[in-house]
Amino acid sequence: MCSSNQGEKVPGPPVNETHHIDSREFSIASPVKSVRFGGSVSEILAKHEQGDSSDYDLLKHQLADPCIKDAQIISWLQEIRSCVSQLNKDHEQLIYTVLKLPWIGRRQAVVEEYMTFLGNLVSAQTVYLCACLKMVVTYFTPMRVRICVEGVNISDSEDEDEYENLSRNFDQCHKALQLIARYVPSTSHFLMPVFQENFPFIQKSSRTLECYVHNLLRVSVYIPSIRRDILELIIGKMLQLDVSASRSDIEEAEEIAMQNLQGHPLKEEGLFDMDEDMPANPSTMAVTSHSVAERLDTLMAVLMAYVKDICHVNGSLHVERTKELYRDLLSVFDKLILPTHASCHVQYILFYLCSFRLALTEAFLDHLWKILQNPSQPAILRQAAAGYLGSFLARAKFIPVLTVRACLDLLISWIHGYIDSQNSSGKQACCDINLHGPFYSTCQAVFYVLIFRHRALLEGHMKKGLEYLQSLNLERVVMCQLNPLKLCLPTVTSMFAAITRKYQIVFCYNVIERNNRQLLPVVRSSTGGDCVTTKTNPLDSFFPFDPYLLKREDDDDFLYGDTPKADAIVGMTPNSFDSNLCSPNSIGSPPITFQKPF
């Protein structure tokens, strides 16, 4: 429960900003004229203090009337403002009733009067700060349209598609939130619990989630002190969606959808079959077929649009703002994304941001490298860092060959150093993923990078390229007692073996055949008889930048690349979102008027 201390009364000035409010009211009253009962608010409060609560209860009843008219709201608010210093915690039920008034979407005069009331209330009675914040945040998702006809309430569906005034309503919410923050500078300390409490369930519609996330990101623009917390909240929810929509489930849903559209039979895909089965016309499949993936797709589009808008000013990259956002996202990456197993898409936020500037790419690679080679880090995080390093180097076309070589030099040097340490230990080295997890993950990362980037390493000067690959001394890695080919994924092993044989760098097939001849472990069953057991390979699912399967960016090679056949280089192109990525059309990017922090 969020609470604040009662503060000193500060008169609230009228709101001078020009508001563009649609004349259409969300609460449509019947033509029957309503009659106001009871005396003035000051008289009602005086009687209530003396023990007569009849008019006090009547006041609350009239304020709660769904058919209340604009003129009535303005009149009551003006009187309540004149008595705001008396409205302490004892009158919370009255204040809560006022906070439930349907002010959003009404005439400009109502909206301005309500905002003035909010300013007066939070400055004079800060005990209601959190209640006011919660009220504003409830409007961050599309509200139900309430219609009162001859005393009968008729409400539409919560998931109504068309909201003509949605953008204007959100503008009103943010003006109210800014007003509160102006009167109570400590507002930022109370916002995050409110945002967390009101975050829609991830099972809600894409529309609801889209609007809420968009509005949280707007808040981060004018209250930047909580941006990192907001990003952490949003990305945490997105990760819940991400791990609930596995790559195989999305592919199966898309295949079924394509089969229904075109009558084609289902086809199995391998690790390196990346876009053979994409429809010739992606626009025919504009929506992701998997329902959870569709919600994630929507949020990814909103967040990537936000990243682009924050980092660019008038179409040019703003270096300082980009660096600040990178630091915030990197913090969230370390805390949430890196430890999350089997996320498929959320990590592309960092991928996209790094494409803006080579310095960011190098900083991200250096960050991953420091985690990998740090023995004080948990082994599972070191393995994850190796996976991210390998996948990033393999997939990102915007990483120059010189940077790829520099990273390979670091990785292979670490691998050889690890082999040296095992050889000098005096103990018999054994093939054990639990003992040497970071080593195996790093080996697989190197193999994976070479599969995708070997052609780039050889282009221009084949002889020098081959000399470089031979200098890596991959034969020693493959032949060492730790036997990395035994634990690497079969698809990686076979592809690496084919490429290294083609260029006569190392011959892996003798090792592969020997590994294949080894028997699977046999254990005695408690119920009698023998049974074969196998363990899940911890190196599986360690390709975090495998092809992006969501639909909203599916016509852009930033998120696909080519199938690695005929030595193709699979990856992404820099800044390829620029042509088609934008904030949701129905909402728009945060207007410039919201970009000044307090």
From TrEMBL:
TM annotation in the entry: none
GO MF annotation list: RNA polymerase I core binding; RNA polymerase I general transcription initiation factor activity
InterPro entries: RNA_pol_I_trans_ini_fac_RRN3
GO process annotations (BP): transcription initiation at RNA polymerase I promoter
Pfam family, one: RRN3
Gene Ontology CC terms, in alphabetical order: nucleus
The organism's place on the tree of life at top rank: Eukaryota
Residues annotated as signal peptide: none
Family membership noted in the UniProt record: Belongs to the RRN3 family.
Listed PANTHER family: RNA POLYMERASE I-SPECIFIC TRANSCRIPTION INITIATION FACTOR RRN3-RELATED (PTHR12790:SF0), TRANSCRIPTION INITIATION FACTOR IA RRN3 (PTHR12790)
Protein name (database record): RRN3 homolog, RNA polymerase I transcription factor
Species per Swiss-Prot/TrEMBL record: Takifugu rubripes
